[in-house]
Amino acid sequence: MSTVLRARGLQKEYGRAEGLVRAVDGVDLDVAEGETVAIMGPSGCGKSTLLQLLGGLDRPSGGEVALNGSRIDGLSEKALAELRRTAVGFVFQAFHLMEELTAVENVELPALLAGRSPRAARRRAEELLEQVGLEGRARFLPSALSGGQRQRVAVARALSTEPSVVLADEPTGNLDSAATLDVLRLFEGLHESGQTLVIVTHDPRIAATADRMITMRDGAFVDDTRLTGGTTGQLGALLGLGD
Ligand code: ADP
Question: Which of 232, 194, 175, 201 is nearest to 47 (CA)?
Fold first, then answer.
């Protein structure tokens, strides 16, 4: 299986009044096509920074990152912007939807920016909203949707350009239990369909659906465990969340 994401000796330092903070400190990582990797660890250990480096939202202070075999750490700002538009899908804790656009307009936007025709972009957006169970909400503004529905729109948007990898930063951090389970099922479906996923999460239920669970501390990996895989249904039943 081919490697979608590869990092070697990855470092990120931030200069602060009290001195340099090494937020990411020598990370080596290979994510295979179709793999779901969960990254866990205490607040401030470098998870978000790592995700930003992997998706080209920020540049490392040292080391290498490659996406689909091509180095991205030295790309120009323009090339990085293009990469973020086409090859990477992001899902954030706070959704980051455009409040003045409807659900379907939010979902089609990346495809339009990537140069798809309006018809093709709209068709794909409608399919994606159906996939996340929101076909009846396509013309709603984000303010008329629940937190869980907004996050499902954000996941659909992340898939708009058929990215090589979806990077999710605490995707259930703002959601209640029922909405968490919806998003959990969504990620599990994506995993089953072969989408490569890297998910930063505090939620052991999300991590339990991954192929691998990586634990970070002080900017470095301290554990990388291959999981045999539970199912959302079993977990939901265990937690009394039901169907
Ligand atoms: P996590 O996602 O695990 O909570 P972060 O990646 O957000 O951790 O942060 C890792 C460390 O880097 C923390 O010490 C944080 O304060 C610091 N940090 C993150 N972003 C910045 C920034 N833009 N400027 C300065 N320090 C930062």
Answer: 201
- What pLDDT digit, counting tens, does each position of 143-174 carry? 999 999 999 999 999 999 999 999 999 999 99
State both tokens at 2.
């081919």
If we measure between CA atoms, which residue out of 77, 27, 39, 17 comes closest to residue 199? 39
- CA-to-CA dists, residue 188 to 102, 194, 207, angstroms: 26, 10, 11
Q: Which two tokens stand for residue 159?
A: 């898939």
Quote the tokens at residue 185. 């099922």
Q: Hey, which of 49, 53, 221, 222 would you mutate to test ligand 1's pocket, going by the most ligand atoms within 8 Å of its Cβ?
A: 49
pTM above 0.90, yes or no: yes
Amino acid, single-letter form, for residue 216: M
Residue 229 confidence (pLDDT): 56
Enumerate residues lining ligand 1, CB below 6 A: 14, 16, 21, 23, 41, 43-49
Maximum distance among all alpha carbons in the chain?
53
